[in-house]
Amino acid sequence: MAIRPSRAKRWHGHGLPYLDEKPLPGHLIVIEGTDGVGRSTQVELLRGWLELEGHAVSNTGWTRSPLLSATIADAKAGHQLTPITFSLLYAADFADRLEHEILPALQAGFVVIADRYMYTAFARNAVMGTDPEWTHEVFGMALVPDLVLYLEIDVDTLVPRVLRGKGMDYWESGMHLALSSDIFDSFQNYQRRIIEEYRRLARDFGFVTIDARESISKIQSEIRAHVSDYLRRAHNGFQPQADGPSPAPSARPLAQARKG
Amino acid sequence: MYFTEWNSSRLVRNSMRRGKRRNLLTPSTFSLLHAVDFADRFIYQILPPLRAGMIVLADRYVYTAFARDVARGVHPDWVRSVYRFAPRPDLTFFFRVPIDVSLERLLAGRAKLKYYEAGMDLGLSTDLAESFRLFQGRVLENYDRLAEEFDLRVIDANHDIAGQQKVVRRMTGEILREYDEQRARVHHGNSHGH
């Protein structure tokens, strides 16, 4: 008998049919966005705020599973990875954290903040040319999050931010795709494609898009507004009248905002 | 001819070891780690010789995962999706033995059954041998279903080795007749062949 997620929770695909049925009263909030956009800073600020608000918070991040993080780091260092092994390693890391961190925390009623989620794999795999259908099926064990906040940025704003930070790395520049022998060109080209994919995913999966070109504090206050709006609606049992689209102007995709 | 074996790539060896030693693996991570191992070998070891027109002999293939991971409780469609990058073999043998025979053979070779091969992670029984029987019973049932679904050639592995080998060679010979004809054509058309 499969877990029947409480409230509106559902699996992306077949889920984890071997787990016992247990309610999941917690909340799963995902922060997505490309490399160097400022996700970890925002996650830390959000976590602190939620704790002050009296919530039990647990956070989890991409490739942070104790089972796989070292293996993934080694494999990346050795350039042995192909799109298929890359995807499967990410899926194993994800499944490990899902079962050992995310689901237990949700069962205990925690707010779980995930720094990246399955959408990262969807975006990267699409850019690497892996069959998107396959990626979705492999991540069929994933729980669909309650709220996805997408930090959207453009490449021109991203470049100086990354250069002021830890610099351009081999994988984040998409050097494995051999788009260019020049890391700067490759970074721009690769990140532009990733951002395009994210925009498609934002539309398909109903992400809340936040303009990440703004200051850290502006972005954080937008994030908090969306999270507290979500938590209020969850607390009220998602009454139909309160279930409409968020009134915040930042919910509009950046593309529209720029055109407007 | 190229030979490849299950669970032998270096890529996930440490994760697998860590997971098994500390009993950290869940049915999904167990399945995915083996899939990474297989994918790594498939891409670097199986696919290139196939592209070069060689014969690849694989000791276990995706059916091991289909039988075993489903016995652990993952969804049959999910595990088939995970391995979708792998083509169907031209010929697959399934060496079938009753549980007691495989238990006897394993114990004759070494002192103790392994935790995961006995399916101890599923909590079917606290007794190792009993858990092995229950778990491998499920695996065997799955194999029987797979034999039908994927047309696996079932070899009665209870027979003497020479007898089994005779059947295997005859069936392989039938499949290879076509391959030899193709090779003959290639060599005929390419007189400077190697």
* Average predicted confidence as pLDDT of chain B: 88
CA radius of gyration of chain A is 18 Å
- What is the radius of gyration of chain B? 19 Å
Class by alpha and beta content of chain A? alpha/beta
Assembly type of the chains comes to heterodimer
Structural class of chain B: mainly alpha
Shape of chain B: globular
CATH class of chain A: Alpha Beta
Low-pLDDT stretches of chain A: 241-260
Q: What is the string of SSEs of chain B from the N terminus onward?
A: EHHEHHEHHEH
Largest interface: A-B, 32 and 29 residues
N- and C-termini, Cα separation of chain B: 16 Å
Largest sheet of chain A: 5 strands, parallel
CATH architecture of chain B: 3-Layer(aba) Sandwich
> In CATH terms, what is the fold-level topology of chain B?
Rossmann fold
Helix-residue proportion of chain A = 40-55%
Order of helices and strands of chain A: EHEHHEHHEHHEHH
CATH architecture of chain A: 3-Layer(aba) Sandwich
Round the mean pLDDT of chain A to the nearest integer and report it. Answer: 87
Q: How large a portion of the residues of chain B is in β-strands, by DSSP E?
A: 5-15%
CATH superfamily of chain A: P-loop containing nucleotide triphosphate hydrolases
Descriptive account of the structure:
- The complex is a heterodimer of chains A (260) and B (194).
- Chain A contains nine helices and five strands, in the order βαβααβααβααβαα.
- By secondary structure, chain A is of the alpha/beta class.
- Chain A has one domain: P-loop containing nucleotide triphosphate hydrolases (Rossmann fold, 3-Layer(aba) Sandwich), CATH 3.40.50.
- In chain A, strands 2-3-1-4-5 form a five-stranded parallel beta sheet, sandwiched between helices.
- Chain A is globular.
- The C terminus of chain A is likely disordered.
- In chain B, 27% of the residues are buried.
- Chain B is mostly helical and 194 residues long.
- Chain B contains seven helices and four strands, in the order βααβααβααβα.
- Helix content of chain B is 59%, strand content 8%.
- The mean pLDDT of chain B is 88.
- Chain B has one domain: P-loop containing nucleotide triphosphate hydrolases (Rossmann fold), CATH 3.40.50.
- Chain B starts with a strand and ends in a 5-residue tail after the last helix.
